[in-house]
Amino acid sequence: MKTTARRLPAAPVALAAALLTAFLVLFAPLSASAHDSLLASSPEADSTVDTLPAELTLTFSAKLIDETGATEVVVTDPSGNSVTEGDATVEGAIVTQQLATEAPAGVYSVTWKVVSSDGHPTSNKFDFAVANSTETAPTAQPSAEPTETATAAPAPVATAGPGTGTDLTPAPESDDSSAPTTLIWVLAIVGVLVILGIVVWLVVRGRRDPASTDSDLPSER
């Protein structure tokens, strides 16, 4: 008894092979050319650190292209001022950016841009918070100003004390001398008036004597 092998229709098999080939052609290059992504950062995104660290590190999924201007990292403080020091450095898949040593507390923003291993640029941003400030309080200038004021203030007081006493001492003398001077002027005026009175009296008397002589002569005749 003969057995015959059952053959599958050729059309469905060819259709399945074509679909598999199209899938490999379309999706395999896309997965191979996917941009490198950020895997980790220090400080981490949306985290809170005690103080601003000396540097920020970004770790990507593959080695980055290290060319001039290819990598940029900007970190700004709560006021929008940049706290980055120098340019970012690239070592394989790790980017390092030096940060300022003194920085206030608050929320910091990180904006980064790199060039993936496939040659395409990619960028993104994230935030993290700093709990404590590392800024130095300006104590030198306020302490210097009171010192100059304190040393300058006694100088006028010390010089003005003796000078003021010397200036006030002649004041009573001028008052004492003005009293005799006033008295002398009063006596002089009184004396002049007395003399004028005597002169006037003598003149009046002299005028009266001839008149009386003339009046006596007829009586003798």
- Name the overall outline: rod-shaped
N to C succession of SSEs: HEEEEEEEEHHH
What portion of residues is helical?
40-55%
Structure class: alpha+beta
Largest sheet: 4 strands, antiparallel
**Could you tell me the mean pLDDT?**
76
Q: What low-confidence regions span 5 or more consecutive residues with pLDDT below 50?
A: 25-33, 163-174
- Largest beta sheet: what is the strand line-up? 1-3-6-5
**Structure annotation, total helices:** 4
Question: What key phrases describe this protein's structure?
Answer:
alpha+beta, 221 residues, rod-shaped, 4 helices
Q: What does this protein look like?
A:
There is one protein chain. The protein is α+β, with helices and mostly antiparallel strands and 221 residues long. The protein has 4 helices and 8 strands. It has helices at residues 10-32, 140-152, 154-168, 170-220; strands at residues 38-42, 48-49, 55-60, 72-76, 89-91, 94-98, 106-115, 121-130. The strands form 2 sheets. The chain has a 4-stranded antiparallel β-sheet with strand order 1-3-6-5, with no helix packed on it. A 4-stranded mixed β-sheet has the order 2-8-7-4, with no helix packed on it. A hairpin with a 5-residue loop joins strand 7 and strand 8 (121-130). The relative contact order is 0.09. Residues 25-33 and 163-174 have low confidence and may be disordered.
